[in-house]
Amino acid sequence: MTVDCVIFDPDDRVLLIRRRNEPFKGAFALPGGFVDIGETVEAGCRREVREETGLDVGDLHLVGVYSDPSRDPRGHTVTAAFTTRLPAAAVPTAGDDAASASWVGDWRANLLAFDHAQILEDAEKWQGIVS
Amino acid sequence: MTVDCVIFDPDDRVLLIRRRNEPFKGAFALPGGFVDIGETVEAGCRREVREETGLDVGDLHLVGVYSDPSRDPRGHTVTAAFTTRLPAAAVPTAGDDAASASWVGDWRANLLAFDHAQILEDAEKWQGIVS
């Protein structure tokens, strides 16, 4: 069980990391990772965002659950994807599994790890950025 | 990772099973169970409903992800809860982990296993049955 977080700034830019490790090493990805035993998915999501970007997120809204067996080449993982906004453009600091962390305007111009392009599309719909 | 399904009939009754096994043996519960490796959560949900009630469900809508570490006395399980409707009152046939399966009008009058009362409340909101 993993979590991923789609964080938008007021200009609808999205906070992406570059993966430090395989799979998809060097590719853009949503901040996220494995939930610990004894931790709620929301707490795991906040912890992973903090570890990888240095930022604290507030309310989390569930976008969906993604469970296609082929979504992760390491094996079958199920992710719960959340979305939120940060009220002003906060400055991320990369850490843990993230080689970098930055606000990205045109995420469609980049290769994204796993099924994160699909999650981003769904989160944009949830937020009313696209219909 | 588990799944649970909140199925309403046209009169807003809900399809509940009685648990054949511990924990909560004999209590009412939503149809559901563990997702298999290599199976999507939606496919696992359809399979569990079929095994426990004999019914086939159509479109599934995600209600939420429930991950309180204390929600299952056996250990930490995370469930994805879905909801759907059956167009006419189908006749369930209990099987597998279900000692019985039936449409229940006033589910609040009964003890429900796990956090299924909370899931039912959230599903009723999603369906517009309660505000």
Can you walk through the features of this model?
Two copies of one chain form a homodimer. Chain A has helices at 41-53, 116-127, and strands at residues 2-8, 14-19, 28-29, 32-34, 61-66, 79-85, 98-104. With 131 residues, chain A is an alpha+beta fold. The model of chain A has no long low-confidence stretch (mean pLDDT 94). The interface between A and B is medium-sized, with 17 and 17 residues.
Summarize the structure.
The first copy, chain A, is α+β, with helices and mostly antiparallel strands and 131 residues long. Chain A is 19% helix and 29% strand.
Structure characteristics:
131 residues; four-stranded mixed β-sheet; homodimer; 29% strand; 19% helix; 7 strands; globular
- Uncertain regions of chain A: pLDDT < 50 for 5+ in a row? none
**In terms of structural class, how would the helical and strand content of chain A be classed?**
alpha+beta
Cα-atom radius of gyration of chain A: 13 Å
Main sheet of chain A: which strands, in order across? 4-1-6-5
Q: What proportion of the residues of chain A is helical, as a percent range?
A: 10-25%
The most extensive interface, with participating residues per chain, is:
A-B, 17 and 17 residues
Shape of chain A from CA axes?
A: globular
Could you tell me the mean pLDDT of chain A?
94
Main β-sheet of chain A: number of strands, strand sense, barrel status? 4 strands, mixed
Number of helices of chain A: 2
Beta-strand residue percentage of chain A: 25-35%
* Quaternary organization: homodimer
How widely separated are the two ends of chain A? 29 Å
Number of strands of chain A: 7
Element-level helix/strand string of chain A: EEEEHEEEH
